[in-house]
Fold this sequence. Notes:
The structure is a homodimer. Chain A is of the alpha+beta class. Chain A folds into 2 domains: 3-138, CATH 3.30.1330.10; 145-310, Alpha-Beta Complex (Phosphoribosyl-aminoimidazole Synthetase, Chain A, domain 2), CATH 3.90.650. Chain A is built from 11 helices and 11 strands. In chain A, strands 7-9-6-10-8-11 form a 6-stranded mixed sheet, with helices on both faces. In chain A, helix 3 links the parallel strand 3 (77-87) and strand 4 (112-120). The longest helix of chain A is centred in the first third of the chain and has 18 residues, at 56-73. At the A-B interface, helix 1, strand 1, strand 2, helix 2 and strand 3 of A face helix 1, strand 1, strand 2, helix 2 and strand 3 of B. Strand 1 (27-29) of chain A pairs antiparallel with strand 2 of chain B.
Amino acid sequence: MGEFDLIERFFKRPARRAVLGIGDDCALLQTPAGSHMAISTDMLVQGRHFFTDVDPRCLGHKALAVNLSDLAACGAEPMGFTLALALPHIDEVWLAAFAGGLFALADSHGCELVGGDTTRGPLTIGITVFGSVPAPGGQSQALLRSGAHPGDDIYASGHLGDARLALQALQGQLSLPPALLKATRLRLEEPSPRIALGMALRGLASAAMDLSDGLVGDLGHLLKASQVGATLNTETVLERMAARSHDVWAGAGVSHAQALHCVLSGGDDYELLFTAPPTARSAVLAAAQSSDTPVTCIGRIDAQPGLRLLDATGAPMPHHFASFDHFA
Amino acid sequence: MGEFDLIERFFKRPARRAVLGIGDDCALLQTPAGSHMAISTDMLVQGRHFFTDVDPRCLGHKALAVNLSDLAACGAEPMGFTLALALPHIDEVWLAAFAGGLFALADSHGCELVGGDTTRGPLTIGITVFGSVPAPGGQSQALLRSGAHPGDDIYASGHLGDARLALQALQGQLSLPPALLKATRLRLEEPSPRIALGMALRGLASAAMDLSDGLVGDLGHLLKASQVGATLNTETVLERMAARSHDVWAGAGVSHAQALHCVLSGGDDYELLFTAPPTARSAVLAAAQSSDTPVTCIGRIDAQPGLRLLDATGAPMPHHFASFDHFA
């Protein structure tokens, strides 16, 4: 099987939403009248973003999920995506499973594959996603990182820390009971992009971003973009954002320090971090309900730039929860 | 230097054309009213698409050029692009040169970098480009592969074969005089995407595509998409499309068979292949002149599906000029 058969067999499907889909030099997309196109791109490299023996179905899901999470962060509605795939060799069973995971998630968000490129090389997946954001009168409703104001509440969706906990277990750094490993591994390998919540927060959230590199580091980026600051009680964040109680962690052999680290700077969470003024509290709860997504207030924006962390006693904590950096 | 400093230092520039550029979860682009967005993506892998010791300035140029060539093929006007970059390590001198080559070409086409992703990994470059194509009344003016009709003339732009000749010389398969190596190597390493010609051919060419995998193979794709056929006199194509005469080839030690192979199936040419009805001949010449791009008629579309090759005597030739395929 050659390059062109590979595309034909595993990736070509009739265009439904695109003006022109796979098969020509370019795809053609039309954004709805009065809207902007939101674009994001992510590259996943074997051994760096995923294990060599990862389930290809999970990998197909995750490669698209991390991109859709960026659309969610700006409140965009998914339209389509391109896929660039470097493969060491053609393995039909692997490709069928990868495409299965990819298209299952794509279909659930009405996001169609419009073009791509395949080549031989170390396993690498490059995806670029396209979504639409209403822009009535040319004024974009996209959620940005830069709109947070002093006094705004800080929220995060879902739960944090499970993906990192699973990663540590898979790397042999700790041992988890089977049921807990299974639950946390699902969060690592098949994250759910918060598209519905992002769209529901348009016109409501003052700032938003997705949590991919860890809460503390990512919040740092949002604060910097908004030129504001925040003070977080780390114990409160742990209590509110962990998927389970301290007792369950302890029973599974996870120390308090490990749990704190996973929740505060674990990364790979793909939840939304956002801010909204206190006057929007009931509307934020309604957005959470309408999008069927748990949302929790974890702190408040203040005017003094920078992020301050407090421990259980309210004392300042040394700031050692850096954002994930591929080159640090 | 970490990931975020790297982006800040080498790749972040103020957005001019985009509604929102680098720095948030998504970029925002707005296509002009009454137009569609043309999208294409290509991934370049070290050791596969370029030599490990390639000049990084040339690599930056070429990575964007091969993508712009796809926009040219559909007659799109470049708007912006995203860059996903996997690097084995941070080399500031290398990055500065790579960014220099990339932005020089981008600026010359008014195409701005709107977003990206950097990660550690085997050197891999993934670019997705965005252009606009007028679509008055929702009817796209994009040039497609599928519109060729029996009787249409077949044209190619510029010259073919030099990139392959340089590749063979660099791989040590043949030895070229320094001046010829320099000229052909420029075509391999710094191809010029035919953007102006593509835009000038809107409403004129019945079908078009870019020549990246070799004339014979690529023409095969166009014929298949258009459900038509063609007969090419290989000697005529060699005479008209080679950048220099048979005597020069011979003087440089390049055999006739080698020259034929380079021109017919060399690949990496990034010229445009297109068709147009005979009634459009003077308009095609005017488009060539207005875009300052040589254009040559190399044959004619006929109704019988498939591509037939004739030798110098007009006798059928065995069809061994396959299109480049990364997995064949």
